[in-house]
Write a structure and sequence with these properties.
Chain lengths: 473, 165
C-alpha cells in the first residue's frame, strides 16, 4: 500500500513512522485514540481520486482530515485505516467578487481565506467559527457548523453553492449550478444532490472543491458586550433582538467563560454572588454612521424593553473598552481566534454537547444543563447563538479536562451522556454527532430516515470504505 | 481574613481555594513578575468578575515603579462595588490583596459596570459622581490616590482596533 501511495503522491507524502502518525490518532475530545496504518498527504483532486481508487481496490478505510479540530472524533480513522491529510490542498481557486462567492479547496483555513480577502482588498467576508484559525472552512460547511454570520445566514452548509466530490469509486461529481454553468452561483435549479455530502461526515465522498457564498463586508462595525443576570432576561432579549433583524450576531457565553479567559482554570461551579450570568456579544455592521446609530439605538431600546419586564441587563459595553481593561478579553475583539482557555489549558482535553434547537426552549435547556454540569463538578460553560434569523439556535455545553487523567475522562463521558439525554428530551438535536452519541440516538431517530440513509450509504459506498464508524456505518 | 501562609503559597496549577499570585510569570520578566506577585487574589476560583478585572488592572499598573511605590506605601482598604459585585482591595506592605465581598474599608466606590469601566478607562471620577452614576464614600483623598492604580493603561500587547471579523 505504501509503495502504491508513494507512486501517486511521492514517497515524502506518505507517513508511516509512529511519531508522524501520532497527531492523527486523536483529537481534542475524549474519544479513544485510534492508530492509522498510514497517512497520505494529497495536493490535488486527481491524487485524491487515485488514492480513493486504490483504497477501493484494497478495501482500505479512508478518513479525510484537515485540522482535526471537530471535537467529536469525526476525523479519527477506523482501526488500521488510512488518513488522507488535506492540509496541503489549500488553494483559494477563485473569488467572484461580483457574484459574491469563492471556490476553495479543503485545506483553506479560516485564517487563509480572511487574509486573502483582506490582502486583495475584496469588500466581502464570510462567517468565522470560534474554532482555531487553522481549521478548514470547507469542513465546517460540510458539517453544518456555526459562525458569527449564522444569525443572518444560517449554518454554514446553507452557504454552499456547489461541491466537487470524489466518490468511493474515484469518480468525480459536481453539484449545483456549476454542473452546467461556469458560475457556481447556487444549488438551484437542478435536483440538488449536495445533501448527499452535507452532514454525512465523509461517509459518502471526499469533497475536493467547494463553492460557497460570501457576504458584504460593511465599512462600519461594532462589537458590543451586554452583561445579563438571568437566563430568561438573556434569551428574552435575544429573541427580541432577532426580530429587529438588525444584528449580525448575538453570541452568548455563560459566566465561567470570562473567568477562564482571565486565567482561572477551574472556576468554582457556582457563580459568585451578584455576578452576571451571561455575556452577550452583539455585532452590528453598517454602511453609514446614521445606520449604525439607528441600530445602536434599537439595541438599547430593545434592552430597555426587557428591563421593563423586571429583568436586569447592563448597558452595552464596547469591546474596545473591555480590551483596555483586560487584554485577555480581546479574544472576542477579532475573528478568527485561538481560544486558548479551551485549546491550551494544559490538560489538552476539550469536549461538548453541541446542539441546535428552538430558541423558545433555551432557558429550560440551560437550567437543566447547568444543574447537570454543576452536579458533575464542571463549571457550566455554555455557548449560545441564535441562527437563521432566530428560527433556531445553538446551545452548547462545554467542558475542558485532563487527557492524562483516566478518571476525569470517565467523568466527562458521564457528563456528556447525561447532557445528551437531557437536550434530546427537550427537543434539541446534537450537531457534528460523534459516533457514541449517534449510537445513543439511533433508536429514537425516525426509522424511515435511517432506512433511507442506509440505502443512500450503500449506493454511494458499497464497500464501506468511506470514514467507517461514523453515523453508525 | 485570608490565611497569610496560604496566601504565600506559589500559584499551583490545580484548583486551590488559597491565594493566587496573579499572572505569575517566569524570571525572564523580573519586573512584570514582581509586579504581578504583588497582587494577591484570595480564593481565585471563587473570585467574581470584578475582582478578576481589578487584578488585571493592578498587575499591569504595578509594573510602573512610581505606581508600585504608591501602592506599597498605602495602608488602607477600598471597597469597590459594580452592580451587585463587591470586592475589597487591601493595600498592605506585601502587596494589594483582593478579596470578594465588602470588608471594613476606608473608602468606597460603587456604580454600574459601565460607569465604573468608564472611570478606569479614563473618563475621570468627577463627572460620573456629579451625574450620580458613581457613588463614593469614606476618604475621598484616598480614592484619588488609588485611582491611578486601577486605571487602564494603553497595553503594549493590544492588537490595533480592527473590524471584528
Ligand atoms: C476551540 C474550538 C472552538 C470551536 N468552535 C466552533 C464554532 O464556533 N463553530 C463550529 O461550527 N465549530 C466549532 N469548532 C469545531 C471545529 O473546529 C469545526 O468542526 C471545524 O470545522 C473542523 O475543521 P477541521 O479542519 O478541524 O476538520 P476536521 O476535524 O479535520 O474534519 C472534520 C470532519 O470533516 C471531514 N472532512 C474533512 N475534510 C473533508 C473533505 N474534504 N471531504 C469530506 N469530509 C471531510 C472529516 O473526516 C471529519 O469527519 C470548534 C473547535 C474548537 C477546537
Amino acid at each position: 500500500m505504501k509503495a502504491a501511495l508513494a507512486a501517486i503522491v511521492g514517497a515524502d507524502n506518505v507517513l508511516d513512522a509512529a511519531p508522524d502518525l501520532a497527531p492523527y490518532r486523536e483529537d481534542y475530545c475524549e474519544a479513544d485514540p485510534v492508530d492509522p496504518s498510514l497517512v497520505v498527504l494529497a495536493t490535488k483532486t486527481e491524487e485524491v481520486q487515485a488514492i480513493v481508487r486504490l483504497c477501493a481496490e484494497r478495501q482500505t478505510p479512508i478518513t479525510p482530515r484537515v485540522a482535526g479540530s471537530n471535537v467529536g472524533g469525526l476525523a479519527l480513522p477506523a482501526p488500521g485505516g488510512l488518513v488522507l491529510d488535506l492540509t496541503r490542498m489549500n488553494r483559494i481557486v477563485s473569488v467572484d467578487e461580483a457574484d459574491m462567492y469563492a471556490v476553495i479547496e479543503p485545506g483553506v483555513t479560516q485564517a487563509d481565506l480572511k487574509r486573502h480577502l483582506v490582502e486583495h482588498d475584496i469588500p466581502l467576508t464570510f462567517g468565522f467559527s470560534l474554532a482555531p484559525p487553522d481549521t478548514s472552512v470547507l469542513a465546517n460547511c460540510l458539517l453544518g457548523g456555526l459562525t458569527n454570520r449564522s444569525l443572518k445566514y444560517g449554518d454554514q452548509s446553507q452557504w454552499v453553492s456547489g461541491l466537487e466530490v470524489v466518490l468511493s469509486d474515484g469518480s468525480l461529481v459536481r453539484t449545483g449550478s456549476w454542473a452546467l454553468s461556469d458560475s457556481a452561483f447556487g444549488l438551484v435549479p437542478f435536483p440538488d444532490v449536495s445533501g448527499l455530502f452535507l452532514g454525512w461526515q465523509a461517509t459518502t465522498g471526499i469533497t475536493t472543491r467547494m463553492a460557497f457564498q460570501l457576504w458584504p463586508r460593511h465599512p462600519l462595525n461594532k462589537r458590543l458586550f451586554v452583561l445579563t443576570y438571568s437566563a430568561h432576561g438573556t434569551f428574552e432579549a435575544v429573541r427580541r433582538l432577532c426580530r429587529t433583524e438588525l444584528c449580525d450576531d448575538i453570541g452568548g457565553l455563560s459566566w465561567p467563560s470570562a473567568k477562564m479567559m482571565m486565567g482561572v482554570k477551574h472556576p468554582y461551579p457556582e457563580p459568585a454572588s451578584g455576578e452576571p450570568t451571561f455575556f452577550l456579544y452583539v455585532d452590528l455592521t453598517a454602511g453609514s454612521e446614521a445606520e449604525m446609530s439607528l441600530k445602536e439605538r434599537t439595541l438599547e431600546q430593545t434592552l430597555a424593553d426587557v428591563r421593563h419586564l423586571g429583568e436586569r441587563i447592563e448597558e452595552p459595553l464596547d469591546v474596545a473598552t473591555l480590551l483596555r481593561v483586560n487584554p485577555a478579553l480581546g479574544a472576542f475583539a477579532e475573528f478568527p481566534v485561538e481560544l486558548e482557555f479551551l485549546t491550551n489549558h494544559g490538560g489538552g482535553g476539550l469536549t461538548w454537547i453541541g446542539t441546535y434547537g428552538p430558541l423558545s426552549r433555551f432557558e429550560d435547556g440551560i437550567a437543566a444543563g447547568t444543574e447537570i454540569m454543576v452536579r458533575h463538578g464542571f463549571p457550566p460553560l455554555i455557548v449560545t447563538r441564535p441562527m437563521r434569523g432566530g428560527h433556531y439556535g445553538v446551545l452548547r455545553f462545554v467542558a475542558i479536562f485532563d487527557k492524562k487523567d483516566a478518571a476525569e475522562i470517565e467523568r466527562v463521558k458521564k457528563l456528556n451522556l447525561e447532557l445528551l439525554e437531557m437536550v434530546t428530551a427537550k427537543g434539541f438535536v446534537m450537531y457534528k454527532t460523534p459516533p457514541w452519541a449517534w449510537e445513543k440516538l439511533r433508536g429514537r431517530i425516525d426509522p424511515g430516515l435511517l432506512a433511507l440513509m442506509e440505502r443512500t450509504k450503500r449506493m454511494l459506498d458499497p464497500l464501506g470504505i468511506m470514514n467507517p464508524g461514523k453515523l453508525g456505518y | 481574613m485570608p490565611d497569610r501562609s496560604t496566601a504565600r503559597e506559589p500559584h499551583a496549577d490545580e484548583p486551590s481555594v488559597g491565594a493566587d499570585r496573579a499572572l505569575a510569570r517566569r524570571p525572564a520578566e523580573p519586573l512584570a513578575a514582581r509586579a504581578a506577585e504583588l497582587v494577591i487574589l484570595h480564593e481565585p476560583e471563587r473570585m467574581n468578575l470584578l475582582g478578576l478585572l481589578m487584578r488585571g488592572l493592578l498587575a499591569a499598573n504595578l509594573e510602573e515603579p512610581a505606581l508600585r511605590a504608591r501602592a506599597l506605601g498605602l495602608r488602607a482598604s477600598i471597597h469597590v462595588r459594580a452592580g451587585d459585585m463587591h470586592v475589597t482591595l487591601r493595600f498592605a506592605e506585601d502587596g494589594v490583596h483582593i478579596s470578594a465581598g465588602a470588608e471594613a474599608s476606608n473608602a468606597r466606590v460603587s456604580g454600574d459596570m459601565k460607569a465604573l469601566l468608564g472611570v478606569v478607562t479614563g473618563a475621570g471620577m468627577i463627572g460620573p459622581v456629579l451625574r450620580g452614576r458613581v457613588r463614593i464614600g469614606g476618604n475621598p483623598f484616598l480614592l484619588l490616590r488609588v485611582l491611578p492604580l486601577i486605571r487602564a493603561r494603553a497595553h503594549a500587547s493590544l492588537p490595533p482596533a480592527k473590524e471584528p471579523s
